[in-house]
């Protein structure tokens, strides 16, 4: 058996020199996707025409008075059967003039996310009613403490770039208090950009006050808004959600970026076909964008058609299949066609634990959306059981998955330096291997992603280490983070001020601060 070449003194010296050089990470937020195009140019043209035709001739029902007034003043019409029609000229104008320069600001500017072009970012998400308890694995209702824990674990994961509210705080019954404490738990748990939903339009002012206080002033928040309001502005098929429309308008006027979400379920609230579900979702989302820009032409709006898939044998959601993956990739491709900041939903495994189903379903969907060029992929981590439950340890395991997916998005950079023809010639005329060459050491960290938890030991070494599955290893890492990682980006004095103004449910002890 051939022996591995030993490290010589020269090799060790070269490695030490390479270690001293400035390191370039193997992956980073905002890598450019867009190489995967499940729709042909002809397909895109058909989808686009169907979208414009539906908006112009069918429109949407249940529009609010404010929306009717604004859209009709801009050239739309309101029919006798109470449907609001959007002429294609208005829709085209909206798309052409919508902002392409949307940046989701972090409380820490190091976490700012540029959503222009085909830049790809990974996010949590879900709004699950339950969690899989990290101690016993059993499913239970989620709490505001769980939400804070999820935020601070994601804060520590370098490949989770954005925190979207993933757990509904079921321990707070009053919706106004729940919305406020949801935002507080997320913003206290991470300095990355945060996205939340708002239950009722009346709850927006208090949420704005919280954000203005954290930013230092209303003007400071409007200049660098670090929280997005997600709005499911439609109740498919082709109906507006009246209260959500009022929430959308209030959020825009308060200075929040907004994510415009359509989430019909194929075969139930949208057509059973992939193409039909896609067309309806795109039409519904564009209708929301028209209204958002009529409220404020400078709104930072994210185009977020997020159609879901049902198991047509039972009617229940099944987001782990190939249908969901290709549907999300196609929705992302339509966002790229319109050149709009785009968010997709991916990673909604139907699995209930970290097993083979969990890994295969998540990888398929997230990789498809990333390579299609979605700017913000939500539900990419932490989710299980078809959005019904969050696993804290899954965030840790998924961080590795996301890093590997991002490495594939980065792709192959073909340059003379990367080809290294001179290095090949030097090695072939010299030692005959690349293990000790400076070129190898200089690129081993910049070109390769090394998983934190993925086990690359031999079977014997793995058995000697306890034969532990990745779920157990991830659980230990999550427990350690929960014991040690208490982000301090919000100063202690400011936290005390927030508690004096707002009814904060998380105790000081729960966020790692002295009482």
From the 3D structure, determine the CATH topology of the largest domain. Answer: TIM Barrel
Shape, principal axes of CA atoms? globular
Provide the CATH top-level class of the largest domain. Alpha Beta
The helix content is 40-55%
Query: Could you tell me the strand content as a percent range?
Result: 5-15%
Largest sheet: 5 strands, parallel
- Tell how many strands the DSSP assignment holds: 20
The strand order across the widest sheet is 10-11-12-13-15
Distance between the termini: 64 Å
Subunit arrangement of the protein: single chain
So how many helices? Answer: 19
Provide the gyration radius in Å: 24 Å
User: Mean pLDDT, as a whole number?
Assistant: 94
Number of domains: 2
Q: Write out the CATH superfamily name of the largest domain.
A: Trimethylamine methyltransferase-like
CATH architectural grouping of the largest domain: Alpha-Beta Barrel
The unreliable regions are 1-8
Class computed from helices, strands and strand pairing: alpha/beta
Question: What is the topological layout?
Answer:
Layout: H1 9-20, E1 31-32, H2 41-57, E2 60-61, H3 65-73, E3 77-78, E4 83-85, H4 88-97, E5 103-104, E6 113-114, E7 119-122, E8 130-132, E9 139-141, H5 144-155, E10 163-164, H6 175-189, E11 194-197, H7 204-215, H8 218-223, E12 227-231, H9 242-253, E13 258-262, E14 265-266, H10 274-295, E15 301-305, E16 308-309, H11 322-338, E17 343-345, H12 356-371, E18 376-378, E19 383-384, E20 389-390, H13 392-410, H14 416-419, H15 421-429, H16 438-443, H17 459-464, H18 470-484, H19 492-501
Parallel strand pairs: 7-18, 8-20, 10-11, 11-12, 12-13, 13-15, 14-16, 17-18
Antiparallel strand pairs: 1-7, 2-4, 3-4, 5-6, 8-9, 19-20
Helix pairs in contact: 2-10, 4-10, 5-6, 10-11, 11-12, 12-13, 13-18
Keywords: Methyltransferase, Transferase
Region (Disordered): 1-21
GO molecular function, one term: methyltransferase activity
């Amino acid at each position: 058996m051939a022996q591995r070449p030993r490290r010589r003194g020269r090799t060790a010296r070269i490695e030490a020199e390479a270690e001293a050089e400035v390191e370039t990470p193997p992956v980073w937020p905002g890598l450019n996707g867009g190489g995967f195009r499940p729709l042909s140019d002809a397909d895109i043209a058909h989808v686009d025409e169907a979208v414009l035709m539906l908006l112009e001739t069918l429109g949407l029902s249940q529009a609010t008075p404010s929306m009717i007034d604004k859209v009709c003043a801009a050239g739309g019409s309101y029919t006798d059967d109470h449907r609001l029609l959007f002429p294609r000229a208005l829709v085209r104008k909206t798309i052409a003039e919508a902002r392409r320069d949307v940046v989701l600001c972090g409380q820490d500017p190091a976490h700012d996310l540029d959503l222009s072009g085909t830049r790809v970012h990974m996010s949590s998400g879900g709004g699950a009613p339950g969690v899989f308890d990290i101690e016993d694995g059993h499913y239970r209702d989620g709490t505001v403490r769980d939400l804070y824990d999820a935020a601070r674990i994601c804060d520590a994961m370098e490949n989770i770039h954005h925190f979207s509210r993933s757990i509904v705080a079921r321990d707070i019954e009053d919706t106004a208090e729940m919305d406020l404490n949801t935002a507080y738990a997320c913003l206290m748990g991470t300095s990355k950009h945060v996205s939340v939903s708002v239950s009722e339009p009346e709850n927006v002012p208090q949420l704005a006050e919280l954000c203005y206080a954290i930013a230092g002033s209303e003007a400071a928040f409007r200049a660098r808004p670090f929280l997005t309001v997600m709005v499911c502005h439609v109740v498919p098929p082709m109906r507006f959600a009246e209260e959500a429309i009022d929430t959308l308008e209030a959020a825009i006027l308060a200075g929040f970026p907004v994510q415009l979400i359509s989430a019909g379920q194929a075969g139930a609230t949208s057509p059973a076909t992939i193409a039909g579900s896609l067309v309806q979702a795109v039409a519904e989302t564009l209708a929301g964008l028209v209204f958002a820009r009529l409220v404020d032409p400078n709104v930072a709006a994210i185009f977020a058609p997020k159609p879901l898939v049902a198991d047509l044998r039972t009617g229940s959601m099944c987001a782990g299949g190939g249908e969901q993956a290709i549907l999300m990739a196609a929705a992302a491709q339509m966002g790229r066609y319109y050149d709009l900041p785009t968010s997709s939903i991916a990673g909604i495994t139907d699995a209930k634990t970290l097993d083979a189903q969990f890994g295969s379903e998540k990888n398929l969907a997230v990789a498809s959306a990333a390579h299609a060029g979605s700017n913000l992929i939500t539900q990419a981590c932490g989710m299980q059981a078809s959005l019904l439950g969050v696993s804290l340890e899954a965030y840790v395991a998924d961080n590795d998955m996301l890093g590997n997916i991002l490495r594939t998005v980065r792709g192959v950079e073909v340059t003379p330096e990367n080809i290294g023809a001179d290095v090949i010639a030097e090695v072939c005329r010299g030692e005959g291997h690349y293990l000790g060459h400076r070129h190898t050491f200089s690129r081993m960290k910049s070109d390769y992603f090394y998983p934190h938890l993925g086990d690359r030991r031999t079977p014997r070494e793995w058995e000697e280490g306890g034969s532990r599955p990745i779920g157990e290893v991830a659980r230990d890492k999550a427990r350690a983070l929960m014991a040690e990682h208490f982000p301090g980006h919000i100063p202690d004095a400011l936290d005390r001020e927030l508690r004096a103004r707002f009814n904060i449910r998380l105790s000081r002890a729960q966020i790692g601060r002295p009482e």
